[in-house]
Write a structure and sequence with these properties.
Two copies of one chain form a homodimer.
Chain A: H1 3-8, E1 10-15, H2 20-32, E2 37-41, H3 49-55, H4 59-63, E3 66-68, H5 71-75, E4 78-84, E5 96-97, H6 98-108, E6 113-118, H7 127-132, E7 135-138, H8 150-165, H9 168-172, H10 183-200, H11 211-222, H12 226-243
Parallel strand pairs in A: 1-2, 1-6, 2-3, 4-6, 4-7, 5-7
Helix pairs in contact in A: 2-3, 2-8, 6-8, 10-12
Chain lengths: 244, 244
């Protein structure tokens, strides 16, 4: 089971969205993170050209969106539904952060479809809607200004789903991996450096002033590449030749 | 040093933004995550009523924004600058994910100001701009559709900064913490349950069919609260009395 499989299993459910622009923004946010199942519960206006415009290159998600009348229909067949909510509610389940919830959702993805449920822009999810879900989820925000818009909330949750589903190797795949210098190559360079600064008089072995440990510390942080060791040693040799 | 201190140290630098709406969206995104220092390098239009409208309750960040002519000016005095970029570049530093970069930035926050640098909406950061920064940062996206808009990119990075700066205790602070049942209270309930289902004939001790291990497994997942143990035991007692 790979990460993309888990993302395919996630329904992003927008309950009673008022503004078609937010539906389009949600579709775009989903697609940037590799999610594709958009479900709309009683949208005020859909389809709508404003949604298409905001979706930009993600109009395909709008075309395949499922429109249903009730949240129960959108959740039918799911095995775990997360309600995204900013408020604490009485008698609610313990809230999870978006990050913890994403890990939990991916863990369940082998068992069936999953849902991320978002409420209306103004009123949020009703207590009844939250009650239909099995996991309340909160995006940590500034307590003095927690005004995340719907598109931003969808973006953050889908991002956390991608981060939970994918491995670091997926993320860095295709990046150039320059050959890192081995321990002995670095030690060879440091010996060459010590020789050169001793010859130049900058390093006085009888009065070392911790020069070599400081230079060693600097290059330890750099994590030299093979090619760089070659460049640096060539540079040292040029100083040595010039001085002869 | 607390988490809010680290967030105060972060300059969000937008280089050559074309659309004032994106400046407003960035300000709102920053404020939701507790960041406040907005720097603008040669914005096409600023101040602008469109920026104010999109900022919603975060107009204060626009009012205190610093407008400068060059990226060098925006980075003066910073000790670590992260360049947010979608592309791999030749001879660049190894890329970090947004999450790893946020942890690194918070680690440096005791040493001076930090910068998160975002490029122009269409052209991104130039190679020269990336070269002025010490850490290229990438937000993992769907390789087939990586079209994050500027506001979304700022939102995700600021969220990762908040997640890196704050502790889980900050996030859950103020949530009700119902009293969880202790081990012995749960065991007392399970013994009571076994007694009741034996009396009712549902559990046959000579033919147990793994009933009690299954019920034990169920309640282990629930992590019962004290009050719930009281409710469940009261319910069992009512069944037992009714049967007498």
């Amino acid at each position: 089971m790979n990460g993309a499989f888990a993302l395919d299993r996630v329904r992003v459910v927008l309950s009673r969205p008022s503004h078609p622009g937010n539906i389009g923004a949600a579709a775009r946010a989903m697609k940037t993170m590799g999610l594709s199942q958009l479900w709309l519960v009683s949208p005020a206006a859909f389809p709508d050209p404003v949604a298409d415009a905001r979706a930009s290159g993600a109009v395909d998600l709008l075309e395949s969106a499922r429109v249903v009348a009730t949240l129960e229909e959108a959740l039918a067949g799911t095995v775990l539904a997360a309600a995204v909510t900013a408020r604490r509610r009485e008698l609610s389940l313990p809230r999870m952060t978006a990050r913890a919830a994403a890990v939990e959702l991916v863990r369940w993805s082998g068992r069936g479809d999953l849902a991320l449920v978002f409420g209306n822009e103004t009123s949020g999810l009703s207590n009844e809607e939250v009650g239909l879900c099995s996991m309340p989820v909160t995006i940590p925000t500034n307590p003095d200004f927690s005004s995340l818009n719907l598109g931003a909330a969808v973006q953050l949750l889908c991002y956390e789903m991608r981060m939970a589903a994918m491995t670091p190797a997926d993320v860095y795949a295709g990046d150039p991996q320059p050959q890192v210098a081995t321990h002995d190559e670095v030690e060879g360079f440091l010996a060459h450096l010590e020789q050169a600064v001793t010859e130049s008089g900058f390093h006085e072995p009888h009065n070392p002033r911790r020069l070599m440990p400081r230079l060693r510390r600097l290059f330890a942080r750099v994590r030299l590449e093979k090619e760089e060791v070659g460049i640096l040693r060539g540079m040292l040799s040029s100083f040595q030749r010039k001085a002869e």
